[in-house]
Amino acid sequence: MIRWRAGEVVSRGRAWPGAVELQVALEGGAGTVRALAYPQLVGDPLPGDRVLLNVSALELGLGTGGYALVVALPDRLPVDPPPGPGHLVKARYSPTQAVVLGVDEQDSPHHALLADADDLGGMPVVVADLHSALPAVLAGLRAGGAAPAVAYVMTDGGALPLWFSRAVAALRAAGWLGASVTVGQAYGGDVEAVTLHTGLLAARHVLGAEVAVVAQGPGNLGTGTRWGFSGVAAGEAVNAVAVLGGRPVAALRVSGADPRERHRGVSHHSLTAYGRVALAPADVVVPRLGDVLADTRPGGLADRVLADATALGARHRLVEVPCTGLPEALAASPAPLSSMGRGYAADPAAFLSPAAAGRHAAALLLGP
Fold first, then answer.
1. Nearest to 139 by CA among 348, 312, 282, 352
2. Among 72, 102, 128, residue at a domain's last position
3. pTM of the complete model
4. How many Cβ atoms from other residues are within 10 Å of residue 78's Cβ?
5. Which domain holds residue 351?
6. How far is it, in rounded angstroms, from Cα 344 to Cα 333?
7. DSSP character for 164?
8. Which 3 state secondary structure label does DSSP give 102?
9. What is the pLDDT of residues 88-113, one digit of tens each?
10. Are 55 and 191 in a shared domain?
11. In the prediction, which pLDDT does 36 show?
């Protein structure tokens, strides 16, 4: 299940909050690999340090997981953290389980607030399948010149450490993203929560968010089956937002370039998550792609997306949102736009769709 390697750190590369890239020479002359370390978990590796690596994802050639991951610095273990509150264990019973202070646990200064909190007060919450939608949603939110306070609520369907996300680091540095909440088994956010429900309530009542974005961390998992993909949780997120009195805004996963037919037009992931799993009504945002894409022929991508989304209209409110101006808003993103290895030029619809959802959420803040 785990492919282990040992090696020596040759050099340090890029670093962002919570993570650092390394070049590691493997023992036995087996070459050099690119590795990633989370200093808060394993310590801060320096050139010359011996490291133990998990190379499973690297050996499989996985795109998002294309790193060897540092598991330990066996000859230079970090000191124990200072004693303090916090009893939430995340990544539970894995070798790198982490103990954190949960915003909702008894030791938290916010426990009394969240013990009684039960309402999001109509806060718009944009729900997306893929982590790559996050910069696009924020671009859409800001397309009209507004800059609402935004919290990202990261679920545990992809990467568990939020630190893996360079997009979050870039969005925070640019001031586009105000704060983050990690829920379930995910960790590394500004605040930690046990469930998506308390994570949403913390975003609203502790962090003061005007808008929240819910999406999994980097590393979507899919099997090509109707139900076997991590994005099915997007439907559950719609239910959570609705039961807490928020305004769920569903971003469709859309593509005009994915080689897999099941993801062309509106992805089967969105059709299953919103059409079968989400039991509460949401605003399902349908981007008017014909506003900005050259291919406006009958039966083209714009028409296909509208036709695919129609299947969701029995339960949800379909909201057509114009895409005019969104390409310019997306071009201003401080985080690179990349989804399934494709950038905006290769697959603009993949980013226009979540940007349109962000634009709709911004309109909701203005009221009827």
1. 352
2. 72
3. 0.95
4. 13
5. 111-365
6. 11
7. G
8. strand
9. 999 999 999 999 999 999 999 999 99
10. no
11. 96
